[in-house]
Amino acid sequence: MAHDVLDFATVAWEGVGNRPTSISAAADVVRSALSMIPGIPLLHDAYALQLLPATVFGLRVADPTLLAKRAVLIRSLLDEADGTVAGWIGDPSELTERISVGVRAVIELAERVGFASLGAQSRRMMLQLLINVYGSLVEGPVRDLGGALVIAIRARRGDQRNASYERMAARGIQAGDVVQELGRIGGPWDHAVDLLIRNAGAHSGATITDTGVRLTQQSIKAGVLVDEKTVELTDAEFVEEFACLQETVLALQLGIFPWLMTHADPKVAAAVASVQPTEREREAIIRLLAGLGGLLDVEFQQHGSALRLNGRLVEAAKIQELPKVPSLVAAIFGAWKSIDEVTVALESREPVTFFRHELPNGNPADDLPAVGLITRKWLGELPSNAARLADLVYLVKPQLNVIVGALSESLPPNDAGLNAAETRLRVLAERIDRAELPPPTTGLVNETHRLIRQTARALARFREAVSGPDKALRVSRARAVGALALQVQNADQRAVMKWKELTSKASAQVPNASATRVDGGSAA
Predict the structure, then answer these.
(1) pLDDT per residue as tens digits for the range 478-492
(2) Which of 10, 62, 466 is nearest to 245 (CA)?
(3) Short-list 118, 137, 111, CA closest to 201
(4) Burial class of residue 465 (count of CB atoms within 10 Å of its CB; 0-12, 13-18, 19+)
């Protein structure tokens, strides 16, 4: 697929301090760095991660205090409109689309500048690129993002025209309308955008000189020049103006995006949920998630319903490599609905292919046995002690936990609870049967599989007895379930003891094994 994209893997890796980080922990980085902005602490992990590039770039080039003041002020104006003018968002779908387009344009324009800065660009070529990008930022994100603010302010002050966010009103907003409203806000919003640069660039009035940039804005009426204004800026002064525009766009994004993503109106929430990422955005999302675990140089090759991901794992992340892959695979299947198989090919190891049916239907974080099966598949063949530890961590303990959960779910005994518990165990048994795993290195693996099937059968028989008239049969079947519960408890205790024994040996090394504990802790 296309190579002309910003390396979001590197951006993410830098954003989490060059340390392998989980998705939730990376989202916490964003929420912490931008906690002063209303709505940021409430963002779902998926939405918070979309602001990670803005966090990395923005806090590098922008004044954090000014950024926060601007974003907070924007959010307060939007909240006031929501609180005083019910229904001012007449077209939530249009609002969501325009903001999505604005955020997408910010990323794409950042890519243009980023790639140019890495190449052998002449000074004149670089300045001309910045002039062009400046105009595109003003006519794109400033209008698309700022349009929501403009209409909110109109609604708040009771304007009679174009004070409802409708398609025609939103698309009729000009960059000058946004700049004018920002000027009225004043305070931290003084000197937000210089329209002279935009206008000069748009009308070929920008000239690169030996010492800087000459900007000329002309007003022509009836074919006659009636006014002309020229300003000369040094290279440094022009770059400073460009940075000011970046700060403006970033503040608009940070003030408006969280407001939209956490909006209480069900219609707005539905519009947000219906947005589908573009192919380019899908790749950017996966690169970002890969970068959280130190997986860089990510490339995609798609053939029909099969996708191959190639990449390189940085040295600092290799000891943490394995638990990151399952979450990345799950994210790929979630992003590409048309993909049925994903092959992950990293340097220095054999590629591994995963299939959609191997993943749970819901959130992978809610189905730790499925994540364990995928992780163990990725680990493949290991040295003996490491293999035993991997079997305990990723197979035995998560699956024993499911049996315990199913038994708890079946109490007090009733038809619905027993049926749900039985179904849960049978689904897991079928998934284990389909899993392509290396040969088990501990008898606890097969014992756990046997206990899953036996418990499912015992619950089915107990359910039949509960609904029947034979009291003695109910007691007998209940005792059978109780006996299995004791076997599960015994297997769990032996698994914990074996885990402690293996982890105490210096030779037992499984990447990030400590992230998933078998002594009562939670899986990674």
Answers:
(1) 999 999 999 999 999
(2) 62
(3) 137
(4) buried
